[in-house]
């Protein structure tokens, strides 16, 4: 039971990574498969994501090289491990998923904090309650 709750809350916490960050990236930088670390970090900042969660965003939306350059503190295999964890949590059937695949996911918990159309002009609210 405790494991199920942990999975639920982790899935909720990381929902912005698989839904919010790819949407902001597309709106700001166009629809690409992968983005630079700086673009991903700026998008994570827009959504007010904390550092551990933004590490997942880097793994999901950057190439392995960009990830390694941005997160020198991550141990070897961190990129693969974070992507594998996202794949399991969100039933992503491709190990080589990219932002285009993430934007097509349907079964992702949504948050009114980052899916409303009210906000700072990028179509996503960064405040509480929109």
Structural class: mainly alpha
- Terminus-to-terminus distance: 33 Å
The domain tally reads 1
- Using the CA coordinates, give the radius of gyration: 14 Å
Number of strands: 0
User: How large a portion of the residues is in β-strands, by DSSP E?
Assistant: under 5%
Shape by Cα distribution: globular
What does this structure look like?
- It is a single chain.
- This protein is mostly helical and 130 residues long.
- The protein has one domain.
- The protein has six helices and no strands.
Write the layout of secondary structure elements.
Elements: H1 2-29, H2 37-46, H3 51-61, H4 64-70, H5 78-89, H6 99-103
Short description, anyone?
This protein is mostly helical.
Relevant terms:
single chain, 130 residues, mainly alpha, 6 helices, 56% helix, globular, disordered C terminus
